[in-house]
Amino acid sequence: MASMENPDQTKSGDEEKHVTRKLGGLKTMPFVISNETFEKVASFGLLPNMILYLTNEYHMSIATGANVLFIWSAISNFMPILGAFLSDSFLGRFLVIALGTVTSLIGMSLLWLTAVFPQARPPHCDSPMTGSCVKANSAQLAYLFGSFVLMSTGAGGIRPCSLAFGADQLYDPSNPKNKRVMQSFFNWYYASVGLAIMISITVIVYIQDKAGWVVGFGVPVGLMFISTVMFLLGSPLYIKLMPNRSLFTSFAQVTEAAWNNRDLVLPPMESGGAIWYFHKGSKLITPTEKLRFLNKACMIRSPEDIDMDGRALNPWNLCTVKQVEELKALIKVLPIWSSGIIIAVTISQQSFPVLQANSMDRHLIPGGLKVPAGSFGVFAMITLTIWVAAYDRIIVPLLSKFTKRSQGLSLKERMGFGLVISCVATAVAGLVESKRRAAAIRQGLADNPYGVVHMSAMWLVPQHCLIGLAEGLNAIGQIEFYYSQFPKSMASIGDWSGSFYPWHGSGELDWESNC
């Protein structure tokens, strides 16, 4: 294995060996966690009221605005695929996060300028109900959509890498207290992310409602600037792990090698590791029985397949056991990952609940505090936070008595219950909307989307609480499942798999020993 010139700053993703602890450590945590906190406040603070900005300032119909935001959300959730592979295969996590942070800052700045300069949006319209408002021209829409694309691209660099990058700074297997240090980091990480999202959907949304779009978009830009500066200031202190191979290439090599060796007969598993190819020092010396047809990629045909240094002469005909198991890990999680699409659709319905709340009475008590329409998502976050705490401290000890498992419910059971509850949340949302629409028809507001129905917006709280509970079960269970299935060299892909959720898994597992 080729050695790195500066072991303090870089480490091969394949070698999995400990780096000298001159860099990294707890001194990097203020930079890592502050970067993540400010970025979350800035990015999530733009989402809740965006449908109102598109309908009121760009004169889009509700359906058009919702479709624009849905496509924006879809791109933001797709781009982390590219970011994860770039990180784990070519650029490393530090560079991908740095590029993503700067790109997000540019995108947010462009969006802010649409509020600052009237020329960047259609003329103000006082009578949106008449249908005579001037629509945005092609240049204005291109400018707006360009800012969305830049923010999505930035999210693709930040979301899949931030948690794994923070863990890289503290990972020290020679330290007997490392597990406790890592758990402390994850707890602080979760706390900062949860607090950041709550601030974004309360304080930032309130500022947008009361101070207008210029200030409301300017505050996230300022916070994103602080996030960028803090992350780059810590650069001299970071451990920067660089990959030594492309996962795309590795997967292609395993696929072709398995095809080229399709005529080989697989030996019985008890035959030992004599015929399997692996690098010296690897814990994986024998492939698993699952997806056995791929095992032919790491079968040694003859001693001539390997050079004097123990390297495969043709990596497209002979791959390591670890390469084979990495591809298996990716294939095995695809069914579970695809099941998360349904709950992601439920969670991504951000536009219509805001429009619902905007057309209802949002006072907590008559004549009292008026809750911003975009802030009702805080009830989901509160429910999620309470559930996470209660599940670990109260529910798991009770369930373990019946299930005979220390973790209470299995990961798949948690994910399944989360899917069921997300369906219930959607049904509740439909019933509330039916009641709201009936009230609007009775009051003659069926064709007036700007009218306020005499119905409390607190009716929306149950569906938000159910969505928070579904996230707590399914989303966190998914990411813990990915961490248990992926090797450390694919940690960014594990983070991407749950990147559309604000919460992440509970830590890194020894994947090789699990195999």
UniProtKB/TrEMBL annotation:
Organism: Gossypium tomentosum
Compartment list: Membrane
UniProt KW Transmembrane helix keyword: yes
Primary location class: membrane
Membrane topology label: Multi-pass membrane protein
GO molecular function, one term: transmembrane transporter activity
Entry superkingdom: Eukaryota
Transmembrane stretches, start-end: 58-82, 94-120, 140-167, 188-207, 213-239, 372-394, 415-432
The protein's name in its UniProt record: Major facilitator superfamily (MFS) profile domain-containing protein
A single cellular component GO annotation: membrane
Alphabetical UniProt keywords: Membrane, Transmembrane, Transmembrane helix
Matching PANTHER family: OLIGOPEPTIDE TRANSPORTER-RELATED (PTHR11654)
